[in-house]
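Q: Sequence in, structure out?
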Amino acid sequence: MMKLGCMSLSYQKEFAAGQLDLEGFIERAFQLGLDGIDIHTGAFASTEAAYLRRIRMQALKRGLALSYIGVSTNFGKPPQQLEAEVATAKNWIGVAAQMGIPLVRVFAAWVPQGETAEAVWARMIPCLKEVAAYGQEQGVVVGLHNHNHGCVTRTGKDVIRILEEVGNPYFSHILDTGQYVGSPGASGANGVEDPSLDFYGSIALTAPLAVHVRCKIYRIQTGEEAWLNYPRIFEILRGVNYNGWLSIVYEGQQVEPEATAVPKAVKYLRRLMAEGR
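A: Exactly. Output:
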């Protein structure tokens, strides 16, 4: 059975304004009737053991799973900065292991101006191999998040190539429904899909490999997501017998407050989940 969660970045404005912290986010998720939460590293007030235990206990008492920690890595940085990027990923893998969280999200690499994707690729793959090996050692799966905007994971074929080159069973895929090139939200088109880029095709290509799905929500004022075709996405997921997490990631703060948009997203996705039972 698919399970529904929410990413802490869905409330990024409230976090930034000091109106919400991780403890408050857990309570919000409980009130919304969610099954779990995903936590971006920026939501942690500390990585001290006592704090991490307190967060884990609060989630347990509220019946909420902690499904992944989101780390914002970039292995396309200059070579002298890559050791620090790897260390950051390893540090959060260690935090996940302490908290019993099974998955850590990483990004691949952005291509700096004046460089080629293949040059960046050559220094990215060894970093991802090292991070994946550490995840395997700690018993934590590392999930590659597809992303556009200059990232090397702009298509499903790119994601598959990276997964194959890293070649570690603890290196898997976190599928973002809105971040393949051609998406209304990922290509700077402001709500307009580019059919020639077939981003639904990229979703279909990597859905069989996904261990977690980030459900982007861009425009939900009517109660239904306007930019992404979720009935079509659910058809793809059910077609590959996907049985994991669906995680709300709200990014429409400029048109509707988080406090009203996220509950609408919960109701909308719950309805689509129920239709397939």
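The chain has nine helices and eight strands.
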